[in-house]
Design a protein that fits this description.
This protein is an alpha+beta fold. The protein has 2 domains: 59 residues, no CATH class; 105 residues, Sporulation related repeat (Alpha-Beta Plaits), CATH 3.30.70. It is built from 5 helices and 5 strands. Strands 1-5-2-4-3 form a 5-stranded antiparallel sheet. β3 and β4 form a beta hairpin. The radius of gyration is 35 Å and the shape is elongated.
């Protein structure tokens, strides 16, 4: 009696297993497997990147529009009130000097803090009149007096900067 029940259960399991093996592939059409098997990768030289020609032409156009700066001929400190609203020319640029340091680590530290706040800037290495290596930290450059004034107002309220001032550069171009 026990053997008959066990035999019926084994036959039932085999029947269900056979039905599953036959009908599951029919229910779930496996056409995608063939597509995956047919994918082939091209050699790197044969790969054509979309929009690459447009990007290369833009790079060429941009490089033509950039005028090289021969050198900075003059640097002077100016007051905000002395800057006219229409005082933007091709030969003038401004920067906001946020500090001058003997130690380049201090200069890098203040610039990093300002960059985290969204400012763009640079460090200029120079020797002072006593032949001591120094580092100027500037925000900018600005080629528009309007943008300069906006940034200067913001930087005045910045806790990382104590006494910023504006530096005007007269540029000599080729």
């Amino acid at each position: 009696m026990m053997n008959d029940i066990l035999l019926k259960r084994i036959i039932g399991i085999l029947f269900l297993f056979t039905v599953v093996i036959i009908f599951v592939p029919i229910l779930f059409n496996a056409d995608g497997v063939n597509e995956l098997n047919e994918i082939s990768l091209k050699k790197p030289k044969e790969v054509k990147f979309q929009y690459i020609d447009e990007i290369n032409s833009l790079k060429k156009e941009d490089s033509k529009s950039i005028e090289p700066i021969d050198y900075i001929s003059k640097e002077e400190t100016v007051e905000v009130k002395d800057i006219d609203s229409d005082d933007s020319s091709k030969n003038t640029a401004w920067a906001i000097r946020v500090g001058t340091f003997k130690n380049n680590k201090n200069a890098i530290s203040i610039l990093d803090k300002l960059k985290l706040q969204g400012y763009k800037g640079n460090i200029i290495k120079f020797e002072n009149k006593d032949k001591v290596q120094m580092y100027k930290v500037n925000i900018g450059p600005f080629f528009s007096s309007k943008k300069l004034k906006e940034e200067y107002k913001e930087i005045l309220s910045n806790k990382n900067v104590t006494k910023p001032f504006i530096v005007k550069y007269t540029l000599r171009r080729k």
